[in-house]
Each structure stands twice: as C-alpha cells, then as structure tokens.
Amino acid sequence: MQKKIPQRQCMGCRERKPKRELIRVVRTPEGSVCLDFGGKMNGRGAYICPNMDCLKKALRSKALDRSLEVTIPQEVYARLEKEMEAGNG
C-alpha cells in the first residue's frame, strides 16, 4: 500500500501541493514569525510555493497575515524572496 503524501494549500496560488514542495511560514507560540524548512517547528503554519509569483500574490492579498493571524514583518518577506532567488525551499 502506498504511503499517503500530506498535501497543503499555497497561500499565493491557492493550489494544493505536496507539503515537501512548499515553504512553511510559522507563527511561534511566543508570537514571532519565521521560516521553517524542516516542517517541525511548534506554532501555526502557512505554506507558500517557492516561486515569486505566489509570494507577490500572497503579499498583495495579505493571505499569510490572515492565515497566521498576525502582521508579517517585512524581514520575513525579504528572507522568503532571498530563499526563492537562491533556489532553496
């Protein structure tokens, strides 16, 4: 029997994709927001595709802010951009 692959929805394009293909943004229990590449950090998570179009859509619609119920600091968006340009994620 084939193992079930966990699916998550991208906050930019709204498509469901395998969890491993997406970047996780986490609001920790302390209230800070950071990127989680291992997928194991505690806190509320939201996912985004590792491409600039999805990031721009999510930024414009404030989808990550709504999903995590907090205003995302500009540094987090800058780090996401840098990771996408480097091809990580």
How many extended strands? 5
Round the Cα radius of gyration to an integer and report it.
13 Å
**Beginning-to-end CA distance, first to last residue:** 29 Å
Strand order of the largest sheet: 4-3-5
Q: Outline the biggest β-sheet.
A: 3 strands, antiparallel
- Spatial shape: globular
**Class based on secondary structure composition and strand pairing:** alpha+beta
- Uncertain spans, ≥5 residues at pLDDT below 50? none
Mean pLDDT: 93
- State the helicity in percent bands: 25-40%
Describe the overall structure:
The protein is of the alpha+beta class and 89 residues long. It is built from three helices and five strands. A three-stranded antiparallel β-sheet has the order 4-3-5. A two-stranded antiparallel sheet has the order 1-2. Strand 1 and strand 2 form a beta hairpin. The longest helix is centred in the C-terminal third of the chain and has 13 residues, at 74-86. It is globular. The model has no long low-confidence stretch (mean pLDDT 93).
Q: Secondary structure elements and their pairing?
A:
Layout: E1 7-9, E2 16-18, E3 23-27, E4 33-36, E5 44-48, H1 52-61, H2 63-68, H3 74-86
Antiparallel strand pairs: 1-2, 3-4, 3-5
Write a brief caption for the model.
This protein is an alpha+beta fold.
